[in-house]
Each structure stands twice: as C-alpha cells, then as structure tokens.
Amino acid sequence: MTDKLGAVFNKITSRGVLNEKDIDEAMREIRVALLEADVSLPVAKSFIAQVKEQALGEKVVKSVSPGQMVVKIVHDELVKLLGDESCGLNFRAVPPVCVLMVGLQGSGKTTTSAKIAGRLQNKQHKKVLLVSLDVYRPAAQEQLAQLGAQLKVDTLPIVSGQKPAEITRRALSEGKKGGYDVIILDTAGRLQIDQNLMDEAAEVKKIANPTEVLLVADAMIGQEACHVAEEFNRQIGISGIVLTRIDGSSRAGAALSMKMVSGVPIKFLGTGEKLDEIEEFHPERLAGRILGQGDVVSLVEKAIENVDKAEAEKMTSKLLKGKFDLEDMLAQLRQVQKLGSLGNLIGMLPGLSKFKSQIEEAGIGDNLIKKQEAIILSMTKGERRNPDIIKASRKKRIAAGAGVEVHEVNKLLKQYEQMSTMMKKMGKLGGMGALSSLMKNNPFGGKLPGGMSGKFPF
C-alpha cells in the first residue's frame, strides 16, 4: 500500500496545478490501493469521499503546493480512520484488575498476552499474574508458563482437570492474596468463530469483570479480521484490538477497517516475534509509516529503550579520538539488532520506505548483519583490534569459521575500511562535522537494484 500510495503522491506533487480531473484520477488510484491492501469496500468508499470533498475545496485549489495539501488531507483522514488518538489500558478499578484476551487460534494470543505482561511489568512497574484458560490446545498452559519464566512474570500454577471458569475464580483469589495489580487471562481460541468459544469467553468475562477485553487479530487474515471483530464485539463486547504480525504483512489494510467496523480502538501492534516486539498504537505514527513519511518518534523511543548508554558513551569517546576497530563495528551491529528488524527500522525513516524492497533484494537485511557478526566473531581479538594483519591465509581460516566464502570476508573488511575512514574524519572534525558525509555513504557497499548507486538515499 505504501508503494502504491507513494506513486500516486509523487505524481500529484510533481504538478504545479491540480484540476478536478487530476484529483479524480488520484482518488481512483488511492481507492484501488486500499482495496488491494484488504481495506473493506465500505471503509474505502467512505475514506475516498471524505478526502475528495476536501481535496476539491478552495483551500487546496488556491494553495501554493496543492499536491502537498492533498497528501496532508489523506494523512489527516487516515489518522481519523485509525482512531485520532492513542488509548492506553484502563486500570481504573480496585486491584487486581483483569485484562481478558480473546481471539481465534493462531492469532498470536498467548504470545501477545506474555508481551503485554512483560511491558506492564518492566515499563509501568505493575505486578502481573499471567493465567492460561486454554485447556484444549496441547501444552498451551505450559507454553504460557515458559513465556512467563522468560519474562520473569508470575504465572498461575497449572491444576490438571480444571475448567476455564474454575481457573478464573482461582486466579482472582490468588491475585488478591498475592497483591497483584493486573491479572491477564489468556482464553482458548478456535480455528473459526463458534458458539462454544463465545459462550465460554462470555462466562469468564462475567466472573472476572475485566476492565479490558482485548481482541487479538492477525493482520494477515485480511477482510476476515473485520468479521471477527464484529462478531466478538457483538457477542462478548470488546474494548480494544491488538494487531499481530503487522511487520510481516504487505496487505495489512484490514487495520484501517477494524476501528470503524468494531467501533473500538486499536491499542497495541505486534511488530515481531521477540517478546519485546510490541508497541502502543499511535494513529498518527502508523499513518506516517503507511504514507512513507516514517516514524522518527517511535525510532527514537526504541533507541532510548534498547541502546546501552554506557556503551554509546564509550563509543563516542573513541570516535572523538578517531579510533574505530572491528570490535567497535561488532558492537554497532549488535546495537542495530537490538532495535528490531532492519525492515522495520527502514520503514521508520522518512523517505526510505519506498527503498525497503530494493534494499531487501540487494541482500542488505537482517541475515547480512548476522553473517557479518559471524565473520567478526571468527576472528581473534588481535585481528579485530588490528585488521591490517588479516592476509590471505587468515581470511581463509575466518571464512571457514564463519561458514562463508573468502570474498564475503573481503567485502566486510572493505566496508570496515569505509566506516573507519569516516569515523576518523568525524574525530578530526569534533564528531559532527563529517556527519552529513557519513550519512551519504552506504556502509554496506555494493550496488542497489533498479539503477541506484551504492549509496543509501540518506
């Protein structure tokens, strides 16, 4: 969707003047892009009608940059469609408050329950109890217990033979005794909506009286997500939506429909498989990503959370002295990995999302970073600190140790030389003078497809 909308916007922003025919053509293309991305037809029609009404207004026609005004209108309407403002979880009740997780089997409900628990405990300092009510899926309760252990979040001990209603009552009792702030109840899912699933979830809801009922939906199931949201809201009553696999779907347009269809806000986005890859939903940020404008705020927040401050200060000190070796390069690669997948990071940088597929095709992705890490780890400490000593025989040994070809070792060393040269320039200029020059150089080297040069466009 981002690529197609980007192409439409490039076309209209390149024109000095827009007439009604230009706007009609742009609206048709935007509508097709939305429908191909699984946005439901009623939502797409309503969205286009709102945008077109404003785009034909006097404010756009007479503006200095009418194309940019249309882009702004689309952005603002997209934010409205997604929910105007972010909504956190509701904890306004006597503790322990309950959060009920519902959804279809395979939507990532159990992992999402654990992710939210970890987030609440680590960032909001809540004492959380994780509870599995899934007595049907083999090892489902054990799975949640293992995830809780990884996150150091307490889980309710498993008692064989208990039904979901009994487990819920025991959880409420243990929650009060243990002084917990939040109890997260992970209900059983089904491969499709059925009445037994709804009745069981409704019974648990009646017992627990949760402040939040969160529907976990897979962003990749397309328009079916809207039907799921409608049914769960009608029969149980949901207060929010968590969209999972938002990182892996090129057609996650159902996200745009779910807020309007269900009438409840999206509260979290699952952005990857790791247990810390979940983020609060901010409509304006997602709108920016969809339109290829990036999401610098989320990127900065991610950096603050994941980058080791002491390590960063140590690296800054070395750079100012003009020093940079392969151990420093390894540290940088590991810091990048902490921020999540390279694809997600690229999507957060303004203007870069349109190059995402090209960069991935060129092999500049997470696998490359892991391969580079393996090559550096196959070196001795002496070689990392003094790369000049790495000659032919050493390169063969390093390549064999990392499971790569010698030319890949040569490529990494060349990239290191480029980075080292730029770091030394930065050191001589006090750290910032050569920053713009550094940002124009592609530290990964090589040529990008589509006739692009070996430089990143930033």
Question: What's the topology here?
Answer:
Layout: H1 2-13, H2 20-36, H3 41-55, H4 58-61, H5 66-82, E1 97-102, H6 109-123, E2 128-132, H7 140-151, E3 154-155, H8 164-177, E4 182-186, H9 195-208, E5 212-218, H10 224-235, E6 240-244, H11 254-262, E7 266-270, E8 278-280, H12 283-290, H13 296-306, H14 309-320, H15 326-338, H16 342-348, H17 356-361, H18 366-377, H19 381-385, H20 392-402, H21 406-428, H22 435-440
Parallel strand pairs: 1-4, 1-5, 2-3, 2-4, 5-6, 6-7
Antiparallel strand pairs: 7-8
Helix pairs in contact: 1-2, 2-3, 3-5, 5-12, 6-7, 8-9, 10-11, 15-18, 18-20, 20-21
Structural features, described:
This protein is an alpha/beta fold. The protein folds into three domains: 2-82, Up-down Bundle (Four Helix Bundle (Hemerythrin (Met), subunit A)), CATH 1.20.120; 97-293, 3-Layer(aba) Sandwich (Rossmann fold); 299-440, 434 Repressor (Amino-terminal Domain), CATH 1.10.260.30. Helices cover 56% and strands 8% of the residues. The chain has 22 helices and eight strands. It is flat and about 70 Å long. Residues 431-458 have low confidence and may be disordered.
